[in-house]
Design brief:
CATH class: Mainly Beta
Low-confidence stretches: none
Number of helices: 1
Radius of gyration: 20 Å
Distance between the termini: 72 Å
Order of helices and strands: HEEEEEEEEE
Strand order of the largest sheet: 2-9-8-4-5
Number of strands: 9
CATH topology: Immunoglobulin-like
Mean pLDDT: 86
Largest sheet: 5 strands, mixed
Number of domains: 1
């Protein structure tokens, strides 16, 4: 029965460790364009919102489409610390695009993801 008196302390320690871990796990919460979006025209900027503030030295994204890699401006922090944004600098004609991202919160491991979106309009954007 000696071990049973330590059970509440062990349970509390487990909860503290779990709760301490959750806020630092980076996940993609929202983006523009959204995954599987069908846009009428090319976006002038692309942004990603993460669940926590990303480490900007280890966080980035790129976009590939029918003509290869899309030219993007510098990736910077958006209006909120959890958002990163880049202006579209190249043409984006109609077609399917893949946005690939890599991100990491401060002092944690790197997470990767990708999703597709499409541009259906006949016009291309040259930004």
């Amino acid at each position: 029965m000696k071990n049973s008196r330590f059970a509440p302390f062990l349970a509390l320690a487990a909860i503290v460790l779990l709760v301490g871990w959750i806020p630092f796990h980076l996940e993609l919460e929202a983006s523009y364009p959204e995954a599987d979006a069908a846009l009428e025209e090319a976006p002038s900027q692309i942004w990603l919102r993460f669940s926590v503030e990303p480490d900007m030295e280890r966080t980035s994204f790129s976009v590939r489409g029918p003509q290869g890699t899309v030219e993007l401006g510098a990736i910077s922090t958006g209006e909120e610390a959890e958002i990163i944004v880049a202006q579209v600098g190249g043409e984006m004609p109609a077609g399917t695009y893949t946005l690939s991202w890599i991100g990491a919160p401060l002092d944690d491991h790197t997470v990767r993801g990708r999703f597709n979106f499409s541009i259906e309009g006949a016009d291309s954007a040259s930004r």
